[in-house]
Design brief:
Bound molecules: adenosine-5'-triphosphate, magnesium ion
Distance between the termini: 46 Å
CATH class: Alpha Beta
Shape: globular
CATH architecture: 3-Layer(aba) Sandwich
Length: about 200
């Protein structure tokens, strides 16, 4: 059975934290492909100031184009309204019926899911496997997850993954651009060039 990773996010902008997480998941869990899924707009964030989805989609394409195992999906970009991950996984299960799906998150996102803060969290947890990456600023171990678990699910399909720590966030990158501080080496060069060309985050 093919094993497919799904990396959802706002990617505003995509950065090396996302890319290292996806690549580590691919190798550690023997995934044949990682599908990046930029959201149309995030249900859990203040909508003010979320960048146009097409810009975020194109930056995701630019960042992933040199990895033959990475692809980008428009499934959420093309679906009107807020992007609920449960709907995306339900939709992807059809074209990928013959595959095992692994939803890849950082520590902050998996903790939100097990706390029941995402749309139909308990159902989402039942739909596929989860790979939860360590992330600076968030503690993540089996004990933390058990204590936070409000879903009534057993969480034995949630796999914790240690990755080289990258204290990079899109929030910090946007702030840096606003303050005319560098983002070079935090994002791939074509993403930096795209941000400059389109005057994003100014
Ligand atoms: P923002 O600061 O705007 O929330 P972000 O850097 O958290 O941006 P998102 O698009 O919100 O990026 O995150 C998408 C996914 O990537 C989430 O599951 C998040 O936990 C994970 N992620 C983001 N940055 C890192 C990182 N540095 N290390 C590990 N996981 C990360
Ligand atoms: Mg985030």
């Amino acid at each position: 059975m093919a094993r497919i990773g799904i990396m959802g996010g706002t990617f505003d902008p995509i950065h090396y934290g996302h890319l290292v997480t996806a690549e580590e998941a691919r190798v550690q869990f023997e995934l044949s492909q990682v599908l990046f899924v930029p959201n149309h707009y995030p249900p859990h964030k203040d909508l003010n100031g979320v960048t146009d989805p097409e810009h975020r989609y194109r930056m995701t394409l630019l960042a992933t184009m040199t990895n033959e195992h990475f692809a980008v999906s428009r499934i959420e970009i093309d679906r009107p309204g807020p992007s609920f991950t449960i709907e995306t996984i339900e939709m992807l299960r059809k074209p990928y019926a013959a595959s095992d799906l692994f939803y890849i998150t950082g520590a902050d996102a998996i903790l939100q899911i097990v706390r029941g803060e995402w749309e139909r969290s308990a159902e989402l947890l039942a739909l596929c496997q989860f790979i939860a990456a360590s992330r600076p600023g968030f503690s993540l171990n089996a004990e933390d997850m058990r204590r936070s678990n409000a879903t009534g699910r057993r969480l034995d399909n949630v796999h914790v993954m240690e990755i080289p720590a990258l204290a990079i966030s899109s929030t910090d990158i946007r702030r840096r651009v606003t303050q005319s501080r560098p983002i070079r080496y935090l994002v791939p060069d074509p993403v930096e060039a795209y941000v400059v060309k389109h005057r994003l985050y100014r």
